[in-house]
Write a structure and sequence with these properties.
alpha+beta, 4-stranded antiparallel beta sheet
């Protein structure tokens, strides 16, 4: 497991990245400035974006590049190990993701149908089709953990739409942590 790398680019200066607890700390030094930053891993998408000779880890919220690395520096093997470790740690820290195991109270057909109506009323249904389809299946068998897992997977795949769904459907808040739906009213 590689927790730290130092990258030196002949024209663009040096960058040092280190995984520390639940964040990645990095220092950038070049002819214009010295910069130190820390980014919490849970806000990063685990799949990096490659753009030419650069690789970016982007924000799950707004897709802004938060971590910028030179590809294959210092050497390809070390770079690949570091990227793999970063991806693993991001996945471990993704506590913002929904999880069916967080829901302890019973799910009723009425709750699921109300959730579907709220989403269809307040959001563009075509932008959340997959999640609505998963919710409709869950409404037919609200005690099915497998179907609830499908709803969770569809929600986690929504990207920026997650915020709107959480706003209009409090049902999903119960999948974030062990809370009962009654506690939200």
């Amino acid at each position: 497991m590689t927790n730290r790398i130092v990258q030196k680019h002949p024209d663009l200066g040096s960058r040092e990245f280190e995984l520390v607890d639940d964040m990645i700390e990095y220092r950038i030094k070049n002819q214009f400035a010295d910069e130190e930053l820390a980014v919490v891993l849970s806000v990063l998408a685990p799949e990096p974006v490659v753009d030419g000779s650069m690789m970016y880890f982007v924000s799950e919220v707004n897709r802004e590049a938060l971590i910028k690395l030179f590809i294959d520096l210092p050497v390809p093997g070390t770079f690949a190990k570091f990227i793999s470790t970063v991806q693993q740690r991001i996945r471990e820290e993704s506590f913002g993701q929904l999880d069916a195991a967080n829901r302890e109270s019973e799910i009723t057909q009425e709750q699921v149908c109300t959730t579907i109506r709220m989403l269809e009323t307040n959001l563009d249904p075509t932008s959340i089709e997959e999640m609505l389809a998963a919710l409709r299946q869950l409404s037919e068998a609200p005690d099915s953990r497998e179907l609830l897992d499908q709803v969770v997977g569809a929600f986690n795949a929504l990207g920026m739409q997650q915020g709107a769904v959480l706003t209009y459907a409090p049902f999903f808040n119960t999948l974030l942590s062990s809370t009962d739906l009654d506690e939200l009213s």
